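The data are set out underneath:

___
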Amino acid sequence: MIRAQDRIDLELVATASRSSGSVSIIADRLGVFGLRPVDQAIRGPADVAAGQINIQSAFGSVGTFDRPIIVDSAAAPQILNLKPFINGLGSTPTSQVTGGVLGSSALDVASSSGLSSAVQTLIDTLDEIDPGVFKNDELVEREESSIALPETQRKR
């Protein structure tokens, strides 16, 4: 397992083969990015090659439009990110993407945690939700409105 609080830059992460072993990459804030030029990752070994691949960055990025993360796996990679940029080599199955926090969509989390009004309110991005509402920690203060209001309705 590779874990970082901020950013993970991948050059090459691999197990013995694309059909064995497991790789988990978790970046809590900024995300997971590829270091090598994309053509090298496509022609040569992929950025991540393993039997099972799990990449998580709920509040950061997974790859970029210009430099997606290239994966090579016999099983469908598991991705936790709102809008990941992932490409599979060869016969890699389509990635299973969860676009939200802790394995659920933003609306699932909002409705199941008592924020049913969030389901009825348009949420443009996950950034509009206060991450504190997802913690089971009484030290985190919860405001009356955990969802950011439109700019025209915010108190100045």
